Amino acid sequence: MSAISVLSHDDFVAQISSKYTDVIGAKLGGKIISFSDEWFAEANNLIQPGLPIRQVGKFTPAGAWYDGWETRRHNPEPADWVIIKLGVASATIIGTEIDTAFFNGNHAPAISVEGTFVADDKDLDSAKWEEIIPKTECGPSQRHFFARDALTEAPYTHVRLKQYPDGGIARFRLYGKPTAVFPADLNTEIDLAHVSSGGIAVAFSDQHFGAVDNLLIPGRGKDMGDGWETKRSREPGHVDWVIVKLGAPGYVDRVIVDTANFMGNYPQSITVHAINSPDADPAHDDPNWKLVVDRTKTGPHKIHEYIRADAASGSPDADETQKVLTSANDEVFTHAKLTIIPDGGVKRFRVFGRRASA
Fold first, then answer.
1. pTM, entire model
2. At residue 326, does pLDDT exceed 70?
3. Does the domain at residues 4-179 carry the CATH identifier 1.10.15.40?
4. Which residues contact 350 (CB under 8 A, 6 or more apart)?
5. What is the pLDDT of residue 270?
6. DSSP state of 50
7. Which pick of 119, 244, 342, 355 has the fewest CB atoms within 10 Å?
């Protein structure tokens, strides 16, 4: 069994959440499959994006309203539980955040996390569960950060959170590495930056209003809240940036910068660079970054597409198409950097290409 460490928030960010993906989040497609009880508050709240909130004095027919999962008192079983299907095909797991915000006197005294791999939800009844995080104490109204010393050996499709014996948990985050399912043909174009391909944002300048990991999730979202948005800059020459480690080294054929829902706060312009840095994540000012998309203006609520110079046409869904530099045609890259000038919001960042090797 892997050793488990209790980390501070800063250490968890540095070691876990900045390097791995929350593979159960609702915005990624995580889904509650079943639960033992949700008398006071729904289990679905566990995987919602954003920090939990409190509305003092708000009641439902079941009792006080809580932004989390809360079960009834006096559970006759050892633990209450909830089963969650990952938002990716499968993933290995490295750590978890358990947030008991606003649950004080009714919080979960202890938790554990288990995982299983099944081909279909109907196989869960006979599934074999493996321990990921052992039974660990929790305190009231606080964020708890637990990390393994290594990724699990096997990937999982579903996880089971237990609370002993009952109570409330506001949010549940589970970090790991998606197990990408790549096409056998290396010439097949895929989104190398997509979270399901293993893409992850490893560094950024700012994420004041919206998190950088939103750039890599499926779909075009629903509002400005599920994109990346930085605070307003006041200094001349200011830019914001994000570095994405691609899920696999590859050749860049097409880039998309989507400003969906950003109407008065989209970037004035953008650039895209790429680099081959297989041994370490590069610094944003590394001199080896190569220009892939030259500085171009962006517009509100648009899909901006940039394609190889020798490509016949781009995506039919694109609102605006440019050409990428030919330097991207035959070079292998491991990371891409999106720079927004001077600041603003972007919904999605796609880096389509071909893997360099199997």
1. 0.88
2. no
3. no
4. 191, 193, 194, 254, 255, 256, 258
5. 97
6. S
7. 119
CA dihedral 225, 46, 161, 203 (to 10 degrees): 20
Predicted pLDDT of residue 312:
55
Q: Which of 246, 331, 257, 335 is nearest to 300 (CA)?
A: 257
| Angstrom distance (rounded) from CA 249 to CA 251 | 7
Helix (H) or strand (E) holding 305: strand 303-307
In the numeric block, which tokens belong to residue 193? 């930056």
Spell out the domain ranges in the chain: 4-179, 190-355
Tell me the pLDDT band of 311, cut-offs 50, 70 and 90: low
Would you place residue 323 in the very low, low, confident or very high pLDDT band (cuts 50, 70, 90)?
A: confident
Average pLDDT over every residue of 273-294 = 96
Domain 190-355: which CATH number of 3.40.120.10, 2.30.290.10, 2.30.29.30, 2.60.120.260: 2.60.120.260
